[in-house]
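User: I'm curious what two different proteins look like when written out as structure tokens. Can you demonstrate?

Assistant: Sure. I'll show them one after the other, since each token string lines up with its own sequence. Here's the first protein:
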Amino acid sequence: MSNIYPLIDDVGGFPFPDFVSPDIFNNLYWQAYRGIIRLFDVRQNRGIKNLIYQLEESFQKKIDARLEITAYPQLVDMCAQFLKPIDDYEKEPFLIEPSKAKVIEVELLKDFAINYFEETGSKVKLKVCVTGPLELYQRKMGFAVYKDMAINLAKSAGEFVKNSIVNEKYMETAVISVDEPSIGLVDFTQINRDDITDILNQCFRVFDNMGNFDSQIHLHSLNAYDIALNIESLDVLTCEYASDQKNTIPRRELEKSDKFIRVGVSRTNIDSMISEKIDMGHNPRDFETEKGILSIIDSPERIQKRYKEAISLYGDRLKYVGPDCGLKSWNSQRVAFEVLDRTVKAIKAVRQQK
């Protein structure tokens, strides 16, 4: 893997494979979950073998885009993925039994990584996305947050983090992202900013002395960046820059806190992108086909422009770049791959100019 910074990574969400029923996939997903925590060899189940195949095929598409850190394909709902196990295996309200906290994609991709290593000699550098406590609380209970309950969710998220750390010759957890896209965009009640920081610190505390990987907090907006800067074990803030070039933080604030940033340099907010095209006079039916959707992907020149802007803004505080969050909403994996592929090629082209 390149040691050139910023490294190119992605955000986990990815469209379902063609001709795959989300309902059937989700049913098999939870069968696989129950099998894994009971230490069964789930690969012997014919249906789960098909789920693993779909997961591996999705991951292969990301690998083919030549990302330097590759997030597991998050095909299931980002909150249900963690709330259902917490509900099913809680030892007290909102607090999961540690051995039951599994990101099963990490487990199911190990055979893929072994085969990939044997074929290429390269180790999979994995990014693991874990939905954060405030996002989980909001989905389950709403915006009135009771701190003690949220602290338990933070501890549960931390257990998922701990069980997702892999350091083997064929696969390594290189980044763990705690996803909190609502911070800075919604108003939580019953708690203040110090409480929010305490909740997040409880979650990120597990990163201490756990291995050689970076911790990210996945934010959409930097409106409340001061909260993230006060998270003690956080390395990297992230933001959606491609869709909003005003979404920035002063470099000096990162330097004072000794933190870094990930910047999205290609747009993924597909509904807004289509609306803008329609406002410009395009026929809405143009975007009902794959060809029409491909036409709205950012050009290499636009991606390069945003990448250069990010370098100018943050200098050596810019540690990761890639697409914004939102690829799961695109209509096919082929189109999502094109976004990834174009983003990687555009960034590497700028590197070569130096």
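Here's a second, unrelated protein for contrast:
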Amino acid sequence: MIEFGSRVVLTVICLGLVVVIHELGHFIVARFFGVRVEKFTVGFGPEIVGWTGGHTRYAICAVPLGGMVKLAGDMMDDQKNQADEFFSQPWYRRIGIALAGPVMNYLLAFFLFALVACVWGVLTPSEQPIIGDVVPGLPAAQAKLQTNDRVDQIDGVPVANWEQMATLIHDKAGRPVRLNVRRPSEPKPIVLELVPQRDPSTGVGLIGIVPQIDKIKPGFVKSFSYAGRDVKMWTMQPLHYLSDKISHFEGPKELSGPLGIAQMVTKATKEGVSYVIYLIAIISTGLGLFNIFPIPVLDGGHIFLYAVEGLLGKPLNKRVMALANAVGLSIVLTIFFYASYQDIVRLHHGFWR
């Protein structure tokens, strides 16, 4: 029961943080453009504590999951044609307000990725020709290569680094090679023979080994370049994944909902604080990316509609906006229930154990 409670609390903190930061982006830019913010809440449901500052009601609510920003006149039917209302702003300002949420998520992710790199270091493949792991069933495993083995020579050619070793193996597809290996448990070098397997997609020789992983601390300045790399990686990876699934007409079975995120948070806490922070950065990147998708109801959908308004030079029809939002809400709910179903399936099959 205690473990379940801690899992819920950690999940709430992770999801709550990234959503509140998202809403804070909308809040800051709306205020900058002079739009009246009627309410800013942390959580949902009944207020636990609240106060009013200027025209804004600030509150902490009973359901501590996410938050909300209520802008004056952000629904077409509620407009009173006042200058400080959302829909009284030019279309490009409304785009700026909508875009601010995803931008804040990306800024949070960038900062957290940089924090982890600077304080705890980053995992990077070693340049040394030392085997970090062996893939079962491939030539290296069949030849009895082991983790921590160091390859000194390939067919009599001295090996200085991992890249050189990989190149020599790639060039030997389907032909026998002799490896001179130093093994920590053996007093003398040993010689192993194997035949690299030809990769059908690239034609190069593979034996099924991966490099040793080192942890390095890049320092304050260089940590930002690693943060940029991670932001790019966690943005492009989901896009490539979705593109592949769409092209093959497959469902995204790896999609995770709240239950899956809770399990990932639990796993991360067992690894340490840095893993939890890194996971929050991944979630923040995902939330920012998802909200940019041009689906009505999401920020990306609003951005698309306001851009169309700008191109047409006139406000969009209220019925068109209402229909677009209804369709968008249906899509978002479908994604949510599908992801939750996949979480339950993975839980049933013991994936998270």
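A detail about the second structure: The mean pLDDT is 85.
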